[in-house]
Write a structure and sequence with these properties.
heterodimer; A: about 600 residues; alpha/beta; 20 helices; B: about 290 residues; globular; binds thiamine diphosphate; binds iron/sulfur cluster
């Protein structure tokens, strides 16, 4: 059984320590250094819901090859405190290294842990920080230098990065950081570890983006001409609010941190009424508060975009971990019935694309469009080919923003179900956009008449049929015929594609159907895919098999196997790999360091 | 100048005969007409309640929003459409009950909005339950032994939060109310007009007669509208109890307080200077942002 990637082409680095030690920031600096040197990177940040203390880790995968997800093993463990070693020793690959401060943990303590295949890189992190005149938080920078030193990787990329990062501070701050990194680099080289991995800068670098999912959605929304963004902070959606706030002035977007999610969603409806492209985003708890106004958007036929970045629930759940358990909620939330679109990006490139397409769909259909992500997407960064901004188009559907209209009726009954939309301010655009059922003008009392109710609800329903022709289609990966066929939505795409790559290398063919749009449910495509699959698996991160149930409901077909996970950790490629072997009748033993042993038969 | 009748839809108002909402409706139409507001220059956003049914009767470009939620969409409309004036119509249950948070936060922000509260001190549309402004100890269908809470003091709340235009009106005095509306509508910043709106069906205490015996006009008493502390003290005098006689509780109507020249929320948000829909006329150039992510 191979390791997830051949040694020498890939290195996995884990930085661990208490929250407040700048672990993620340091890791991201390192990721940028490698990305700029021509490597593919993927990072996974794991942290409990604590600001200071607790155990945080940042796991960075650096590879010469295209990669799709995180993996389990670690080659270099940077331990900013002693518990990190105990917690992650098991993940270290044979020949791996531990960068640690001998003041925190004695070298023989590590030896006592029973691994004699590990190389120790003691670096007096704290001493060095004080030697260069810095402050304690800079220990992480020394460690970064040490990681590069250990890999015999040149320091200049990191130096550039640090100078850039601290450009807005006093000049001595940047230089202290540079000195700290340099000292770390030298110390690691002195450790004389016989380390099997060597990375060197790779020359020419293709244009790339190193973004997390929220940034990718945000860039997509901005490209689409977003004019109003409202949110109340909730992990993992909060960083999108910060992103928007950061770019608000330069992009001329009104960004509002509202009093609650109820206000955010209602504001978005108000902005959309004025003709502005408007978005809000939250996690499941906040979405619960938005639900009534989502119904308002539905009945009022408002073109709004809602980001729903889920975490494990119910209620406040596991704030900083990941799950896909709000799929049914996204599809069904709100009173009554109205058409909606739910898009589920599987990675950052999808997130950018769906981020801008969501606005066109909302305008074309005049109904809410939900972008359904999760923590695994929101929080993690991945190098992606430069986003295709040239492909961005604006389609505002039937929208009139200037001039005059005659005999305008906001909710004119049409064959497509979409009524021409005229914003307030246009002469003659007398209209009430109503949360009540209404007649063609939007007046509520006549909406109670039976004929009006039927006409309006059928009109809205027709938009759902139109939606089916407009939404992004499922995407298929892998060969047309395969030994194993996977159906999934959202971020399980990433570990599944990674595992499929490993399996392909062993001659096991896997094809994957990614439901980019989960609502309207692409029943025909799923049915056709199931028809031609030999063994089918549905992979999703929830307990009840929400996607599996939708498949059954909409195709009247069973899926053969299910892989679910509910511990808040993302499904790993090793897990998918082992599962596929398992259903093929081989047993794969998984350890923390990844898949290590297979045996024929004996399911 | 648009005639009053131009603001009327073909639908006949469904309010109970004699309801205070008629007077408010009439005063608003007159104010809009007298101020020469063209129908494409402004929007009205209603909450849900008997007051909100007015959305069917005023011929404007507006929104009939959710119960308690008129203020947020109106704020966003104002921020993204600086070319439009925006009016909010809300009920007391609507705006001071379920929507109280939005009201307070709107006061904090001072957007250029006019909020008209139909304060009938009862839930009309849901048939007579106690509202946040129902008199202390008054029995209602949801409080048969009387409301135990103190009423919300909208005027005091607005003043405490440093609102820039705070007024009280009475639906039974249409000319006076029209003048108040005109001042509120032309005020730059958040204007709140809390209107005593008798509900003739469910509130048998705070009737037209009850108010007529008690109201007096601030401007006739030579009131100084620039004295916030005095205005706040005055707002406290109207926490009257069930048994008070006309002599014991006089109810001031008119402008309690106003201050000009305070920057509005949108004055401080550079992006709200032009209509938001213009941003989506063509794809936005995001190359600078992407460069930061490279
Ligand atoms: C979320 C929600 N809860 C409850 C209602 C039911 N409801 C409709 S109007 C109303 C109260 C009306 O009272 P008020 O706001 O004072 O307006 P009025 O009818 O007196 O004008 C309520 C509770 C609703 N529409 N929405
Ligand atoms: S119930 Fe009261 S507030 Fe409602 S319409 Fe009748 S009188 Fe007016």
């Amino acid at each position: 059984m191979p390791q997830p990637a051949p040694y020498g082409r890939e290195v996995r680095i884990r930085i661990g320590g208490p929250a407040g030690f700048g672990i993620k920031a340091a890791g991201q600096t390192l990721a940028r250094v490698f990305a700029r040197a021509g490597y593919h990177t993927f990072d996974l940040t794991e942290y409990p819901s604590l600001i200071k203390g607790g155990h945080n880790t940042y796991h960075l995968r650096v590879s010469e090859d295209e990669i799709f997800s995180h993996v389990m093993p670690t080659d270099i463990l940077v331990a900013l405190d002693a518990p990190t070693i105990a917690l992650h020793l098991g993940e270290l690959t044979s020949g791996g290294a531990i960068v640690f401060d001998p003041h925190d943990v004695a070298a023989d303590a590590i030896e006592l842990a029973g691994r004699d295949d590990i190389c120790l890189v003691p670096v007096p992190l704290t001493d060095i920080v004080y030697e260069v005149g810095g402050i304690k938080i800079m220990r992480n920078v020394v460690a970064l230098g040490a990681v590069l030193g250990h890999l015999e990787f040149p320091l200049d990329g990191l130096v550039d990065s640090l100078r850039h990062q601290f450009a807005h501070k006093a000049p001595e701050i940047a230089e202290q950081n540079v000195a700290a990194a340099t000292r770390g680099h030298v110390e690691a080289a002195n450790a004389h570890c016989d380390f099997p991995f060597r990375l060197a800068p790779r020359g020419s670098v293709e244009p790339f983006v190193l973004a997390d999912g929220n940034e990718a959605v945000g860039v997509g929304a901005l490209a689409a001409g977003l004019g109003f963004y409202a949110a109340y902070p909730m992990t993992p959606a909060s960083s999108l609010l910060s992103f928007m706030a950061k770019h608000a002035d330069a992009s001329s977007v009104v960004v509002k941190h509202t009093e609650d999610e109820i206000a955010a969603m209602n504001m978005v409806v108000g902005a959309a009424f004025g003709g502005t492209r408007a978005m809000c985003a939250t996690s499941g708890g906040g979405f619960s508060l938005m639900v009534e106004a989502l119904g308002f958007a539905g009945v009022s036929e408002s073109a709004v975009v809602v980001g729903l970045f889920t975490r494990p629930g119910p209620a406040t759940g596991l704030p900083t971990w990941t799950e896909q358990s709000d799929l049914r909620f996204a599809i069904h939330a709100a009173q009554g019935e109205f058409p909606r679109v739910v898009l589920a990006p599987g990675d950052q490139t999808d997130a950018f694309e769906l981020g801008w397409k969501a606005f066109n769909l909302a305008d074309q259909l005049q109904t809410p469009v939900i972008v359904l992500g999760d923590t695994y997407l929101s929080d993690n960064r991945q190098t992606q080919p430069a986003f295709d901004t040239a492909a961005v188009t604006i389609d505002r559907g039937q929208l009139q923003t200037t001039g005059e209209v005659e005999e305008y009726a906001r909710y004119r009954v049409t064959d497509s179900g979409v009524s021409p939309r005229v914003v307030p301010g246009v002469v003659g655009a007398q209209q009430i956009v109503n949360s009540y059922e209404h007649d063609e003008h939007g007046w509520g009392a006549p909406g109670e008449e039976r004929a009006n109710r039927i006409a309006q609800s059928e009109k809205r329903a027709r938009k759902f049929e139109l939606a089916k022709t407009l939404v992004p289609k499922p995407v298929e990966f892998g060969p047309h015929e395969a030994a194993v066929s996977v159906i999934l939505f959202g971020t399980t795409k990433m570990p599944t594609l990674e595992a499929a790559k490993w399996l392909a290398a062993e001659g096991v063919t896997v094809n994957v159907l990614q439901l980019v749009t989960v609502w309207p449910f692409p029943a025909d495509a799923v049915h056709e895919f199931l028809e031609r699959s030999k063994r089918s698996i549905v992979i999703e991160q929830n307990a009840t098999g929400q996607l599996e149930g939708l498949i059954r409901e909409h195709t009247l077909r069973e899926v053969g196997h299910r892989l679910n996970r509910t511990d808040g950790r993302p499904i790993s490629p090793e897990q998918v790999y082992a599962f596929v072997h398992d259903i093929l009748g081989r047993h794969v033993e998984l350890t923390a360091a990844g898949a290590i042993a297979t045996s024929e038969g004996g399911r | 100048m648009p005639a009053v009748k131009e603001f009327v839809t073909p639908l006949k108002p469904t309010w109970c005969p004699g309801c205070g909402n008629f007077g408010m409706w009439e005063a608003l139409k007159r104010a809009l007409s007298e101020l020469d507001w063209q129908k494409n220059e402004f929007s009205v956003v209603w909450g849900i309640g008997c007051h909100g049914n007015g959305a069917d009767f005023l011929d404007v470009q507006g929104m009939h929003a959710l119960h308690g939620r008129a203020v947020p969409p109106a704020t966003a409309l104002r921020l993204t459409r600086p070319d439009l004036k925006v009016i909010v119509e809300m009920g007391d249950g609507d705006g001071y009950g379920i929507g109280l948070g939005h009201f307070v936060h709107a006061l904090r922000r001072n957007p250029d909005l006019t909020i008209i509260a139909h304060d009938n001190q009862i839930y009309g549309l849901t048939t007579g339950q106690a509202s946040p402004t129902t008199e202390h100890l008054m029995p209602t269908v949801s409080t048969p032994t009387g409301v135990l809470e103190q009423p919300v003091n909208p005027i005091g709340l607005a003043l405490a939060q440093d609102a820039t235009f705070v007024a009280r009106g009475f639906a039974g005095d249409i000319p006076h109310l029209t003048e108040l509306y005109k001042q509120a509508l032309t005020h730059k910043g958040l204007a709140i007009v809390d209107v005593m709106q008798p509900c003739v069906t469910w509130n048998h205490l705070n009737t037209f007669q009850w108010f007529r015996e008690r109201v007096y006009k601030l401007e006739e008493s030579g009131w100084d509208t620039s004295d916030r502390a005095a205005a706040f003290n005055l707002s406290m005098t109207t926490f009257h109890d069930l048994t008070c006689t006309p002599e014991q509780c006089k109810i001031p109507i008119g402008v309690f307080y106003k201050r000009e020249g305070v920057p509005t929320y949108e004055d401080r948000v550079a992006a709200s200077a032009e209509p938001g829909f213009k941003r989506a006329e063509q794809p936005r150039d995001v190359s600078a942002i992407l460069a930061g992510l490279g």
